[in-house]
């Protein structure tokens, strides 16, 4: 029987823009045990607040890797081989070759690096893989230490949206989605192996932009008061309470003293102004003959 308290301490969250149809997702083995939920949201974002000392945010968005100018034919060739595809370089000019991915059932997707949309799409895929491997390395470093924070791996993929805007056809975008799912399947296998299965994957679909301000998730960190700060706060509260008690006691002492002083003065005044009669002399223990 599974332990309900043995929960994963890591989550892989990827926003995929430009995708609304969920049907192609269920054709992948990656989503065999997955479930879907349709959320209709307006301008509101999902706010996630994490304790700063107990959580770690790993961003998959690496601008340097998504910049196609920073890539090389060798790096693209290694990525194609890792995905089971091929990359034919252009001998006359670098970064102008043709990249081919198998899609199954005898189909394939060809991307020409001379096209701007294809370059951005490949740059986004390689950036995603780099981010996953970076998260894997960071987890291995933290797993050897005494501090074991919860981890949130978060990123956004705009490659499908770029293909739709540039190509204008759903067929190319669907092929790009299948290649993305194959990339996610291999990348998620790396995370499953590194985290020993203690990780949850979440894919958000929508038309949101990739900028941080338009992201569907707004992740912020909250600092938790330290033990020393709590001790100082408690000590300050105790000092304030002691000062209040001392003030009350001092006030009562002054009020009591004033009442006694007024009583003495009244007694002396009445005694000096008391008329000398037989009754008053008797009350004053004066013996009368």
Automatic annotation (TrEMBL):
Keywords: Membrane, Transmembrane, Transmembrane helix. Residues 1-205 form the DUF7794 domain. It comes from the Eukaryota. The chain crosses the membrane at residues 252-272. InterPro entries: DUF7794 (IPR056696). PANTHER family: OS08G0567000 PROTEIN. This is DUF7794 domain-containing protein. It comes from Eucalyptus grandis.
């Amino acid at each position: 029987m599974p332990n309900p308290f043995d929960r994963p301490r890591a989550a892989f969250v990827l926003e995929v823009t430009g995708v609304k149809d969920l049907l192609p997702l269920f054709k992948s083995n990656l989503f065999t045990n997955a479930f879907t939920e349709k959320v209709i949201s307006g301008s509101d974002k999902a706010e996630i607040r994490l304790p700063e000392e107990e959580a770690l945010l790993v961003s998959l968005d690496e601008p340097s890797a998504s910049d196609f100018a920073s890539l090389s034919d060798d790096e693209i060739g290694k990525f194609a081989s890792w995905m089971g595809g091929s990359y034919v370089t252009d001998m006359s000019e670098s970064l102008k070759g043709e990249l081919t991915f198998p899609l199954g059932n005898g189909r394939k997707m060809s991307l020409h690096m001379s096209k701007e949309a294809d370059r951005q799409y490949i740059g986004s895929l390689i950036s995603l893989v780099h981010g996953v491997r970076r998260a894997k390395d960071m987890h291995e470093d933290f797993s050897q230490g005494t501090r074991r924070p919860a981890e949130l791996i978060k990123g956004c993929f705009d490659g499908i949206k770029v293909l739709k805007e540039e190509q204008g056809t759903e067929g190319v975008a669907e092929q790009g989605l299948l290649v993305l799912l194959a990339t996610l399947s291999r990348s998620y296998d790396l995370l499953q192996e590194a985290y020993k299965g203690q990780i949850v994957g979440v894919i958000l679909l929508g038309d949101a932009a990739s900028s941080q301000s338009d992201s569907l998730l707004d992740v912020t960190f909250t600092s938790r008061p330290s033990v020393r700060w709590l001790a100082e706060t408690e000590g300050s509260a105790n000092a304030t309470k002691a000062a209040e008690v001392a003030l009350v006691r001092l006030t009562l002492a002054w009020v009591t003293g004033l009442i006694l002083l007024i009583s003495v003065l009244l007694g002396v005044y009445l005694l000096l102004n008391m008329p000398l009669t037989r009754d008053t002399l008797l009350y004053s223990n004066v013996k009368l003959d």
